[in-house]
Amino acid sequence: GIRRAQAYLDAGVDGIMFVGVKTRAELEPIARAIDAPIMLGGTGPELKDPAYLSELGVRVSLQGHQPFMAAVQVMHDCLQALRNGTSPAQLQGVASSELMQQLSRDADYQDWQKEYLT
Question: How far apart are CA 63 and CA 65, in angstroms?
Answer without folding.
Answer: 7
